What does this fold into?
Amino acid sequence: MEIRTNRSRDLQETRIIPPADRPRLPRKKIAQKIGRSPIGGRGFASALSMVGKLSGCLLVIIVMLSIYIFATTSKRFNLRQVAFYGYKKLNPKQLEKVIRQDFPANILRLDLRRLKERLQKETWVRQVEIRRILPSDLIIYVQERIPSVILEMNGELMVADRDGTVLDKYEPRYGKLDMPVFKGVLGEDPENYRMYQEENTARISRALIMLSEIESGCPAYVRNISEVDISDRNNLKILLVDDTTEIYLGEKDYRKRFCTLMSNLSQYRELKNKYHDIPLVDMRFDGQIVYRLGRPDAEYSEKAGN
It folds into this structure.
């Protein structure tokens, strides 16, 4: 018996024919996309580097700020000892008292510039140099003012340094100060004198130049001067020892004029014996000495000898 089927035909008829292959598009590389992303690749690494640097700087600032706060508040850095060097007239305890009362206790909070300015306001202090010695000490080197000038102020004698700073009343302990007395400063007392400090300093400076110039040419003659009138900087006047006659030296050629006077001193004494009163001798004229006599408008001049 023979059985026939049509399965093969059906299979043949129902076979699925696949569609023709479509051309495949090339895939985009993922790495290229990541490289172009704002949070990837070089941009991401740069951002990480910047964050790291900022974090490091912030950490350093925090550490330094913590150290500063600790140092400026810790009692370990409070002023313990102040050592002074170079003083003779000054009272170091008084200066230390000024520092402790007027300035912070913590040595790191001390404004050294302001402290220097404050100490230099003290009468005898000319210059100071300040050093911190951690954790708690100060060393202060002091340059004192030196008494160099005797001033007459409203009938009272005062001593001052070469800058014209009034230091003290004249006392026997300043007896070794072999200087003429300077008259004609502005001010009736030290406080009032300081109101005209600049002008007084200029007058004293001119008188010191005059004495130095005379001493350079006639060293022995300076001791013959007892007073210097500095009321007019353009015409310095002097008095000789044990004499009351004013001698005008003007504003220049001090050595030449004074030496001329001393070379003709015998002539001056003869005229004084003759006329008894010569209130003024004027040395401001080249080649001659003018003697103004006690009588009104009386004047006598002599050719100056060498």
Observations:
- The mean pLDDT is 82.
- The CA atoms of residues 269 and 276 lie 10 Å apart.
